[in-house]
Every structure is written in structure tokens, then in C-alpha cells.
Amino acid sequence: MSRERPVWPLMLISVLLAVVAMLIPLPAQISPLRPYWLALVVVYWGLEAPDKAGLGFAFFAGLLADFAYGTLLGEQALRMVMLLFLVDRFRSRLRFFPIWQQALVVGAMLLNDRIVAATVHAFAGAPQWPPAYWLSPISGLLMWGPLFLVLDALRYRRRQG
């Protein structure tokens, strides 16, 4: 009788690594191209472990990012909850797409996330990001496949034991 190991330590480590990856300074020319790592990780866990990664998980991951990045308190929490809501809504279809189609859908969700962020900044009176900021969903789309495969391999290896 084999018992499955809990997945929450891997979830926590992946969220923390995503937050740290967003804090690493990049040259000004490529900084707007940085994928939104936290969103990619939250989408992955929303797809693969929906019973463990619910809206509360997304909210606390976003709140952690708000504290780490010094953004408007609750902005990223709102964005993560909205993103995970979309993932939950379309999960049954999205799970059966090939990775390249999932990447296209994730790219669309990341673009939606940018629109939400711009709207929040407009209502809060915060400055808007430069136009290059809108290129980030493309890099997120390109990074979805590798990130999915790495997290899936780690989750599978953890399950095996």
C-alpha cells in the first residue's frame, strides 16, 4: 500500500521561487520581457492540483507578491484570484489541450492579466507601465511549456516517492 506524498511543499517552494525570480534585476532593455512567473506557477497548480490550489491559494500567493514587490496592496492578489478563476472555469477543457495550445490560452490569460493590472493602476491613480510591458505575455506564452514540463516532472517524481 503506497501513500501519496503531500504536494503542498512543492507548491510552496514553486511559489517562493517564482516570487524570487521576479525580484532578480534584469537589464532595462529586457526587463519588460520578463515572464510573470507567479502567474505561470499559479496557473500550473490550478490545472494540476485544483483541490489544493484554490482561490485562497491564489490570493495568498498574490499577497506574498504584493509584499515582496512593494506594489499596491491587494493588486497582485486580485490579479491571481481572477487568473485562477479563469483557469478553474476552463480547466476541464484546458487540461486536455496539447502544451502548445495550452501556451496560447495561458498567453491570452496573461494578456488579460495585463489589462486588469492597467485598469487597477488607472483607478488607483498609479503610473502606467511603458508600452514594452505589454510584451511580457508573449514571453510567458513561450515559457509555459518548459515550466509545465519541469513542474510536472517534479510533481511526478514526488508522487513516485
Overview of the molecule:
The protein is globular. With 161 residues, the chain is mainly alpha-helical. The protein contains 6 helices and no strands.
Secondary-structure blueprint:
Elements: H1 8-23, H2 37-48, H3 55-69, H4 75-94, H5 99-124, H6 136-160
Query: Which residues sit in consecutive blocks of at least 5 with pLDDT less than 50?
Result: none
Succession of helices and strands: HHHHHH
The largest pleated sheet is described as: none
Structural class: mainly alpha
Radius of gyration: 16 Å
Distance between the termini: 13 Å
Number of strands: 0
Overall average residue pLDDT: 92
Estimate the strand proportion: under 5%
Quickly count the helices: 6
Outline type: globular
In short:
The protein is mainly α and 161 residues long. It has helices at residues 8-23, 37-48, 55-69, 75-94, 99-124, 136-160. The two termini are 13 Å apart.
Please name the defining characteristics of this protein.
single chain, mainly alpha, 71% helix, 0% strand, globular
